[in-house]
Automatic annotation (TrEMBL):
This is Queuine tRNA-ribosyltransferase. Residues 17-105, 138-415 form the tRNA-guanine(15) transglycosylase-like domain. Keywords: Glycosyltransferase, Metal-binding, Queuosine biosynthesis, Transferase, tRNA processing, Zinc. Transmembrane segments: none annotated. Catalyzes the base-exchange of a guanine (G) residue with the queuine precursor 7-aminomethyl-7-deazaguanine (PreQ1) at position 34 (anticodon wobble position) in tRNAs with GU(N) anticodons (tRNA-Asp, -Asn, -His and -Tyr). Catalysis occurs through a double-displacement mechanism. The nucleophile active site attacks the C1' of nucleotide 34 to detach the guanine base from the RNA, forming a covalent enzyme-RNA intermediate. The proton acceptor active site deprotonates the incoming PreQ1, allowing a nucleophilic attack on the C1' of the ribose to form the product. Substrate binds at D94, S95, G96, G97, F98, D181, Q228, G260. Pfam families: TGT (PF01702). The active site is at D94 (proton acceptor), D307 (nucleophile). It comes from the Bacteria.
RNA sequence: GCGUCGGUGGCGGAGUGGUCAAUCGCACUUGACUGUAAAUCAAGCGGCUUUAUGCCUACGAAGGUUCGAAUCCUUCCCGGCGCA
């Protein structure tokens, strides 16, 4: 009995994209879908009912964070992630592999997992390996066995191995869990990416073995293996082949994650390299990606699921998605703007009610400047609605056979200058 | 009226003879944010330009001392407090 089953409904002609349905023990997910991030067992600033009302189908929490706080056994003893946070739809947990990056190579710097322009290692002669660039004070150290973290909360030391990550994820109880991997920096050299990839593959085998060793959990939770390889075609393809090879007809991974770093310019191409190789009948989750253009590119190149902190983080920081592009609600011009946040949007924040229009830009500008908590709530509702609906609309356009037209018109409007 | 303390950039508040266009905080302006270390972070914030170890104007006002003053002296104006 497999915990996850994936049915493709319609494919995008001449491309890797598809619309489908992913069945889980907590219900179905219509794919492509945007997964809302709720790192610590809550989508920041929102009640679960609000998250559900936005059309969210899945929430992703984080292994490292919940292990530290409140502790995975406490989550288990509260009935698991669903019951603890009052979310009865599907959930996922990330393995903690991203924290190997964010608390390791990226700690104390501005490096993103997306390389832009001159960020890439080939343009930086300084970067020849992992050690040279590592910032002082970083909180994660990687070795063959796993990652040693110092808690960002109290500095205490903790070690994650593949086996430990899976055990914690079993305790948390999401129906989709991830293999423990090493998320690398976009600034890492080819040599380092190759070395890290080998490690990630060995960790994938260990994660899979640890998962299958717990027969009870393996019945209820699906394990997704994570493809790495940075922005290098040969490494990405090697990774996809390796993980696919761990999937005999009767077992193996229940789906795949595509993680790590990319060049902004050809992220979609890189995703396509991988998805051309991964088994077609299992879901593919593009980890940590959620810009509108990237969602189109990811879907077109065969991804079914996306999660990203961007909608909620940007919302809390005052950047708001509109059909005509992003706005920064802090800009002085919005202080007296009595117009809607995003004309035509149907979210709670934008919807007319009480005999009037939705909340105005001027009101949000005020709430943000006044540091009122409701600002983050209203903006998070809007941004999440925007992105969730975008992915749902992309899905519908695949079913309708209008994907290309939809993509062209949406992007032209959103990114026009 | 007498005494006393004080008047610094939008606000609060450092500075008490040179390295001061003036620490810092707030406010303001603009950016950034892609498996959340993030309701965070970064830059700017007197004027001008050839954007510079540049020029000008500035620390209540006016004079003065000094090579040099936000910093010292004198007078005036304004405010707090105390005494009448």
């Amino acid at each position: 009995m497999q915990p996850l089953s994936f049915q493709i409904q319609k494919k995008l002609p001449g491309a890797l994209g598809r619309a489908g349905v992913l069945s889980t023990p907590h219900g179905e997910i219509q794919t492509p879908a945007f997964v809302v991030v709720g790192t610590k067992g809550t989508v920041k600033a929102l009640a679960p009912e609000q998250v559900a009302s936005l059309g969210a189908q899945v929430v992703l929490a984080n292994t490292y964070h919940l292990y530290l706080q409140p502790g995975d056994t406490r989550v288990r003893d509260q009935g698991g992630l669903h019951r603890m946070m009052h979310w009865d739809k599907p959930t996922m947990t990330d393995s903690g592999g991203f924290q190997a990056f964010s608390l390791g190579a990226a700690f104390g710097s501005n490096v993103s997992k997306i390389a832009k322009g001159n960020d890439a290692a080939q343009n930086s002669e300084e970067v020849t390996g992992d050690e040279l660039e590592e910032p002082a004070g970083k909180l994660a150290k990687i070795d063959e066995d796993g990652v040693t973290f110092r808690s960002h909360i109290d500095g205490s030391e903790h070690k994650f191995t593949p086996e430990r990550s899976i055990e914690i994820q079993h305790n948390l109880g999401a129906e989709m869990i991830f293999a423990f991997d090493e998320c690398t920096s976009a600034q890492a050299s080819y040599e380092y990416q190759k070395e890290a990839l080998g490690r990630t593959h060995r960790w994938a085998e260990r994660s899979l073995a640890a998962h299958k060793a717990n027969g009870d959990a393996a019945q209820k939770q699906g394990l997704l293996g994570i493809v790495q390889g940075g922005r290098f075609k040969d490494l990405r393809e090697e990774s996809a082949r390796f993980l696919a090879g761990l999937c005999p007809p009767a077992g193996g991974f229940d789906g795949f994650g595509i993680g790590g770093s990319f060049d902004k310019e050809d992220m979609y191409t890189a995703v396509g390299w991988v998805n051309a190789i991964l088994p077609e009948d299992k879901p593919r989750h593009l980890l940590g990606i959620g810009e509108p253009a990237d969602l189109f590119g990811g879907v077109e190149n065969g991804c079914d699921l996306f999660d990203c902190v961007a909608p909620t983080r940007m919302a809390r920081n005052g950047t708001i998605h509109t059909a005509n592009g992003r706005i920064n609600i802090f800009n002085a011009k919005f202080l007296d703007d009595l117009g809607p946040i995003d004309d035509g949007c149907a979210c709670y924040t934008c919807s007319p009610r009480h005999g009037g229009a939705g909340y105005t830009r001027a009101y949000l500008a005020h709430l943000f400047r006044a540091k009122e908590m409701f600002a983050g709530t209203l903006a998070s509702i809007h941004n999440l609605h925007f992105i969730i609906k975008l992915v749902a609309d992309i899905r519908q356009s695949i079913l309708d056979g209008t994907f290309t037209d939809f993509k062209t018109s949406f992007l032209a409007r959103y990114y026009r200058k």
